[in-house]
Design goal:
By secondary structure, the protein is an all-alpha fold. The protein has one domain.
């Protein structure tokens, strides 16, 4: 029986979630199925682009969290803490 690989299998391969045996079979399929190879190359490119994305919260969001933490009852002011 010949295993037919799907785009889901290729994504698993791109993210290294396949076994060594499965890797060999997927690589064989990539060499013989141009559409699967095209999808593989696009998936690699997308993964690389997604790894470059850097996100950070807005300053006012961080400040709101810090203010909440500073005023939270479980975090009394330093003058009220016992040393």
């Amino acid at each position: 029986m010949i295993k037919t690989f799907t785009q889901d299998d290729v994504i698993r391969y791109v993210y290294e979630e396949t076994s060594p045996e499965e890797n060999l079979l997927i690589e064989d399929s990539l060499m013989t199925e141009p559409e699967l190879m095209t999808f593989f190359l696009e998936a690699l490119e997308l993964r690389a682009l997604m790894n470059k994305i850097e996100r950070e919260p807005r300053r006012n969001t961080v400040q709101s969290i810090l203010n909440y933490s500073k005023n939270h009852p479980a975090n009394p002011p330093a003058r009220l803490r016992q040393t």
